[in-house]
């Protein structure tokens, strides 16, 4: 069995690269629960320009659709003879996937199949800015490693030319839970060395939310519903982060 990165790339080669992923907090998907450094899968997503989304800890309802799908799959398998080996089981899984996605009309989709509904809509793609930030971060790591190995007699280049190549902010802060104040703002210390105020809209005042920063992208999520309330680039020159409109694809319950 390959790694999660290999499986993801294989799926992308068949279906295309998605705009975002939504997973639970398993360590194969994210290290955000115990480290500020992204894990291997998170780095892979960033380099591909894919926005990473994680459900609220101990709140499986965020992934409710796939959990419901798993239940249907288990019921379907239970009604069939037990597979004799792994190849037979994979054949059954392929049969279920084809029947579920391409043959069986769905009541919630006006009797269309999931594939028909999926093919009828335009698709959001990966974000090149995320990929550029990740590539810039990797380039910095390579330069830093090269600098540490440079002979002591050599000099580091600096000056205007070096300052002109300023890369986007690459700031990652583990998720924390807050309650939005009456203004619809969330305040948190330690974001790029300063306390920041993030405006998520007065209509969200009083909500309990989770705030995280991932490679310079601020994401604020409702801890109860999983709805993304704010998702925008961190402006490290400002303590107050003005709210920016959300693209339609970034609403977690709809974008699945």
From TrEMBL:
Basic and acidic residues composition-biased segments: 130-147
Classification via InterPro entries: HTH_Psq, Integrase_cat-core, RNaseH-like_sf, RNaseH_sf
Residues covered by region (Disordered): 103-179
Any one GO molecular-function label of the UniProt entry: DNA binding
PROSITE patterns, alphabetized: INTEGRASE (PS50994)
GO BP term, example: DNA integration
Signal peptide: none
Integrase catalytic domain ranges (all copies): 1-122
Protein name: Transposase
Species per Swiss-Prot/TrEMBL record: Bifidobacterium platyrrhinorum
């Amino acid at each position: 069995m390959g790694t999660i990165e290999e499986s993801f790339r294989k799926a992308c080669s068949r279906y295309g690269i998605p705009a975002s992923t939504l997973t639970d907090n398993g360590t194969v998907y994210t290290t955000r629960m115990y480290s500020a450094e992204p894990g291997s899968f998170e780095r892979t997503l960033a380099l591909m320009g894919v926005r990473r989304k994680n459900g609220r800890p101990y709140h499986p309802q965020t992934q409710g659709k796939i959990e419901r799908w798993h239940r249907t799959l288990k019921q379907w398998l239970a009604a069939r003879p037990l597979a004799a080996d792994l190849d037979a089981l994979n054949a059954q899984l392929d049969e279920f996937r084809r029947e579920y996605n391409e043959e069986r009309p769905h009541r919630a989709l006006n009797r269309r199949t999931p594939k028909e509904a999926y093919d009828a809509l335009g698709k959001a793609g990966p974000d090149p800015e995320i990929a550029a930030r990740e590539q810039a971060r990797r380039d910095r790591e390579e330069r830093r490693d090269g600098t540490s190995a440079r002979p002591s007699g050599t000099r580091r280049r600096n000056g205007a030319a070096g300052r002109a190549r300023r890369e986007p902010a690459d700031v990652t802060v583990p998720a924390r839970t807050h309650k939005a104040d009456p203004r619809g703002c969330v305040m948190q210390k330690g974001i790029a060395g300063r306390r920041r105020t993030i405006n998520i809209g007065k209509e969200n005042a009083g909500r309990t939310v989770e705030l995280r920063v991932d490679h310079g992208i601020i994401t604020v999520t409702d801890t109860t519903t999983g709805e993304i309330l704010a998702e925008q680039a961190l402006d490290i020159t400002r303590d107050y982060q003005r709210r920016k409109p959300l693209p339609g694809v970034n609403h977690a319950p709809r974008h699945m």
